[in-house]
Amino acid sequence: MIKKTTFAFLLFVISQISNAQYNYPATPERPVVDDYFGTKITDSYRWLEDMNSSEVQKWFKDESDFTNSIIKKIPGRDALFNRMKVIQALGGDKYNSIKQFGENYYYTKNKKEERIEKLYFRKGLKGNEVLLLDPNTLKNGSTITDFTVSPDGKKLALTIAKDGAEVCDVHIMDLESKTFLKDILNPVWSEFNFEFTPDSKAIIYTKMSTSDNTSDEFLKNMKSLLHIIGTDPETDKILASKTNNPDLNLLTEQFPDASFSSDYSYIILDIGSTKNEKLAFYAPISELKNEKINWMPLIKYEDEIISYDFTGDKIFFLTHKNAPNYKIGYTIIKNPNFDNASIVVPESEKVLRRLRKSKNFIYYCLSDGINQDNYQINTKTLETKLITMPKGVNGGYALNPRGNDNMRLSNNSWITPSIAYDYNGLTGKLKLSEEFTSNSSYPDFTQKYNVKEIEVKSHDGVMIPLSIIFPKDIKLDGSNPCFITGYGAYGISRTPNFIGASLMTLLEQNTIVAITHIRGGGEKGSQWHKDGMKATKPNTWKDFIACSEYLVREKYTSSEKLIGNGVSMGGVLIGRSITERPDLYKVALVEVGCTNTIRMETTPNGPNQIPEVGSLKNEEDIKHILEMDSQSKVRKGEKYPAMLALTGINDPRVAPWEPGKFAAILQNYNNSENPILLHVNYANGHHSSDLDVTFGDKADMYAFALWQVGNPKFQIQK
Predict the structure, then answer these.
(1) Mean pLDDT throughout 603-631?
(2) What does the alpha-carbon distance between residue 688 and residue 682 come to, in Å, rounded to a whole number?
(3) What is residue 574's three-state secondary structure?
C-alpha cells in the first residue's frame, strides 16, 4: 500500500549549492511524500511528470535551450559529427533486413551518403536494383522498421514509424503497380509481428490501444487482430485480447502477438512482456474461420523456454530449465511435453545462444564469452554439425525460413567491420558474400588499436568480463580519458561487434573504450541474468564500479578522466554508480536512462518492467526498487560528476521526465563546479534510425565529455 501526502504550499526556493557559473533554468521544489510500506520518500520534482502541462513543456524547452547554448560553444563538436559521417561513409552502402521470396530479394539499404534506410527490390541475386520506397516520401521524419511479402508474391506490408516514436502504421503495397492500397493499420508497435495469411488475402497483427505515449492506456490492453485486405480496419476480427479471451488470463500490460508456424498448419499466440521466458498458446489454422479461436496451452513460464521454432509437427526449443547455460530439445506440438522432451543439444560449459531456422535446419550458437560459433541441426536426422568460420562472434539469419535453406552469416569483432558470408544448409557450402555487400574502404583498425579481454574481481569475488579497446601507442600512466559503458538487464549480452562510427571517432581522440559484461546481462548464462535483477540488482552497478576501479588502479585512466555511460535500463547502472561513488567519475552520460525506478511503474511502459525489477504492490520488492532508484539517492551538498542526460521527447519506453527529474535534482543539489545538463531531442524517441539524429546526439555527448576531461581541442574559450 502506498500513501501519498502533498504539501499544501509550493516551495519555490531553489538550492544555491550549484555553482553560480551555470545559471540553470529555475526548477521549483514542490515536495510530495510517498509512504512505501513504512518507508517515506520525498519527491520534490513530481510536478515534472505531467508532460501535458504547459509549465512542464516550457521547463523542458528552457533546459534544452540552455544545454544547446553551452554545447554549441564546444569547439570540437561539429568536427566529431562530421568525422562520424566520414567513417560511416567508409563502410560503403549498408544492407539490412535481406529477405528472399522465390527468386526475388527485398532489402533495406543505407547508401553511404544518405541518413535513412530505403526499401529496394531485385529479381535474382544479380538483378537490377529497384527502389520501392523512400519513407520520407510518405512523411518527413519517417523510417521503415520492418516488412514482409505475401505468399503469392503480389503484395508487401511494411511498418513506418516517425521521429523515433516506435509507434507505426502498417502500409500494404501492390508490388506490380508499386502503389499503396487504401488499407492502413495502426497504431502498431515497431517490434510486433505482422504477416500475411497463407492465401495472401489477410494480415494478422497486434493493435495498440493508443499511439499517445502519455496516455495510461499506452502499451496496455492490446489486441491481436485479423485484417481482411480491402475491408474497414474497424471491422477487424479479434484473435486474442484480455476482454475477448478471459480464459487466457492476460495481464493488462501483456501483449498478444500472433504468428504462423512454418508450414502454416498452426497459428501461434505469444504472450509478450519483458520476461525472457515464453508463454504461448496455439490452435490449428482452421480456427481462423471460427468466430472465436479455441486457444490451447503450448508453453508455460515454468518451462523456462526463451526461444522456439517449428518444423512440421516438431517444436524445437531453447531452455535454461535445470541448465543455466541452456540446452536444446524438441517435442511434438500435438502433445507437447517439455519435461520429457528429447534433448538434442545438452548443456555444456559454453553458453547456448539464439535459435533460428531455415526450411530443413535449426541453427544455434555456442559462446565462450569472446568467440561464438554457428551450429546446425538437421531437423529430420537430428545430426548436429559446426559451420566452420573464422574465429570471432559468428551469427546470422535465414533469408527465407519457410522457403529454403539460404543463410546470411556474419563474422564480427570489436574493431573489425562485420564480414558477410552466404551459406546453404543443404549443400554445406560457405563463401564470402558477393552481393549485398558494402564494398567498404575501412582501414585496418587492428594496425592502430588493441583489444584486451580480461576479468575483474567484483565486490563479492565474482569475476566480471571486461573488454578494453585502446590505441596501441597509448601510455598507461593514468592520463588517458576512458569511456566505460554497460547495460546489465533482461539477460541481454554485449558480445563483440564492430563498435561503429561514433565510438571509433571517440577512439581517435585517444580515448580508451571499455565495455563491461556485468551481471543482469546474459554473457554467462541465465544465472548471470538472475544475479543482476530484482533483489540482486546492486550487483549490476557494483560490477560496473569494480571495472571502473580496475581501470583507474591499472592506470588506463584516472577518476579525473573517467567517463561513465549507461543507456535505457542502463540508467540504473550509471545513476547508481555516480550516486554511490561520485568521486570515481569525472563525467556521466545518461542516455534515455531509467533513473527514477520507484516511479517507473506509473508510466505506460512501467508494468512491463515488473518481471525485471519487481512491483510497487509487493512489500518485498519495494526495498529493492528503492535501492535501484538513483533520484532518491542524490544528496544535497555532495560533489557530483559533470552530467549530460539525454532524452527523446517522443520516447515511448522511458518517460522523458525520468532523466528530466534526475537532471533537476542534480542541478539543485550538486556542490561541485561540474555542469549538469539535460539534452532534449525533439526529433527522437528512445532511439532513431536517422543517422544524422543519432550522430548529432553522440557528437553532443562526446564533445561534452571531452571538454570536461580536459581534451585541449574541446575547451570552451572564456
Answers:
(1) 94
(2) 11
(3) helix
For cell 554545447, what's the residue? 71
3-state class (DSSP) for residue 300: coil
d(CA 305, CA 101): 30
Question: Per-residue confidence at 687, pLDDT binned at 50, 70, 90?
Answer: confident
Containing 128, the helix (H) or strand (E) segment is: none
Give the integer Cα–Cα distance in Å for 165 and 664.
24
Tell which residue, 81, 97, 91, has the closest CA to residue 500.
Answer: 91
Can you read off the three cell numbers belonging to residue 393?
562472434
Q: How far lies 624's CA from each of 45, 391, 537, 575, 598, in Å?
A: 22, 41, 8, 15, 10
DSSP state of 216: T
Q: What is the DSSP letter of 303?
A: G
Radius of gyration, CA atoms only, the chain: 26
Q: Which three cell numbers stand for residue 63?
A: 533546459
What pLDDT does 3 receive? Answer: 40
3-state helix, strand, coil in the chain (%, to 5): 20, 35, 45
**Integer Cα distance of 395 and 584 in angstroms:** 37
| 456 HSE (CA, 13 A, CB side) | 27
Given a cut of 50, whether residue 391 has pLDDT beyond it is yes
Whether residue 2 has pLDDT greater than 70: no
Residue 450 confidence (pLDDT) above 50: yes
512-516 and 587-591 as β-strands: parallel, antiparallel, unpaired?
A: unpaired
Residue with cell 561520485: 582
Residues 191-206 have pLDDT tens digits of 899 999 999 999 999 9
CA angle 686, 690, 696 (to 5 degrees): 80
Cell of 87: 567513417
Kindly report the CA angle at 336 between 330 and 338, in degrees rounded to 5? 55
pLDDT of res. 14: 34
List the one residue out of 188, 108, 104, 189 whose CA is nearest residue 151. Answer: 104
Q: Indicate the SS3 state at residue 381.
A: coil
pLDDT given for residue 13 in this prediction: 34
pTM of the model: 0.93
The grid coordinates listed for 633 are 539517492
pLDDT at 7 over 70: no
